[in-house]
Amino acid sequence: MTEFRSPYPLPAIPDDMSIPQFMFSSDFRKRPNRPTNVPFFIEDDTGRPIDFFQVHERTNGLANALSIKWNIGKDDIVCIFSPNHVDYAVAIWAVHTLGGVVTPANPGYTTDELSHQLRTTEARLIITHPSSLAIARSAALAVGMAIDRIVILNDNSHLPDSEASVDDLVEFGARKPVSYLVQRFKSGEARTRLAFLSFSSGTTGKPKAVAIPHYSVIANIIQMATHYRLHDPAWTDKRMNPGDIAIAVLPFFHIYGLVVIMHYLLFCGMSLVVVPKFNLADFLRSVVRHRVTHLYVVPPQIVLLCKHPSVKIYNFKHVKFCMSGAAPLSGELMKKMAEVLPNAVIGQGYGLTETSTSISNVSPDQKFGTIGSAGKLIPGVVARVIKHDGSFAAEGERGELMVSGPSIALGYYKNPEATKETFVDGWVHTGDEVIIKDLEVFIVDRIKEIIKVKGFQVAPAELEGHLLLHPAVIDACVVGIPDEYSGELPLAYVVLNPEVRQHSRDLKNASILKTAIAQHVSDSKVHYKWLRGGIEFIDVIPKNPSGKILRRVLRERARATKVISGDSGFEMRPKL
Asked: Where are the membrane-spanning stretches (predicted)?
């Protein structure tokens, strides 16, 4: 049996600490030392710094208020439905301090999508942003949650009187006697006590809640720190140092932003410039204004940095590290990034929600990552590659990647059937076909049916089920097609009912119908699930004798005919 693993040993991982105890504690000897003048967070618009003591005090004040007003405690689940915010981590750690569990939600969700997450997790409270309040209210009503269980993160807008604000709660909690006992785990308890229910599409159907314990997040922080030799005094070329500044523009609700950016970089002693939403012009100005040293981005942002003319007017010599993740990055784009960021280490990383998070990162001794590589396996990860015949692949042979290690999630929350498909005897079936050579992971193809759009997972079965609700559609198959900007885009092959099919033979009628079907999806689904790859009418969906869709047949057909986004007349890509 061939197994692949890093030769660097991990230090002991504490299994009796919660995430906030680990983040605030000075007892962990391997932690880089953060100077007192280095803030945790920097508010992008105002430049306001928020230091360790302010974050700690706000966390405790909010925890006390949540305990007093709503009796939030052990195993209670709180949904955070918001774009990035300087109090996002405070909200997380306040819930964790009480022994509760956080389920982060995409602020772009529709009412139906947020309602699904609230029902699945049985959340007791929603912490939201004013921009997401309308959806939060409608979803709360849909699941029978009282409106007074919505808390609003403060911004510069006028807040409604009907909901409590985080600022008010922090002040309230600070002046009241402490009403809670800080959750302290027994030895080994952090391995099973839930910290997050982060949603992932799994293999089929609606998104599933990945059950992530405190230990998994702490383990992955230590794994990444060990990979980059942060506590090796002999290693002088450290990639992350106290006082470095990263721009936190990737969403905190996504596992990449949640674990790698929010938790790992803060552990490194870095400051995070918190950006609520990506806009290229604002992003460029922020990187220069705050003298950002570290960029953590995804391929769509790389495309803009490489090709948009406005980038040329800025000097990015102060940027010393650029990591791309969530989807593969082409060698051509990596080379162009080296021109944009002449002093930066440039490479890729790879991970899953189910592995919480990183599996591989660009090597600490490389200035420029190996073309096509998603980085080297980080310490603690054990990898196997399984060939199509079920045998174990040797180095350089392709097959499905299976991984094990200390950061692996517990499974899908209250979904044993889905858990059995992905989590097998301590191993996660990634669904990615890879080649491993010199401990570097090269992603070759997707084995599972999941489509990756800008790093977000889209389950074809979810879209197919929704398409069948349209009166004109009697069968459907959704596949992913390559796209330079988004990685992949969903394309729908649709079988029309006989009456409609006759009318759709006219090109004008067909175009109108395709637009209506696309709108049927975009009205109910978050933006990255929209059918931006187009809609193609087809007489029959190919299936095997047992009735399973032969998705690979249509995926190959789409690529062979060079179907591209925009062909159906309803391209909805945001303007640059």
From this structure: 245-267
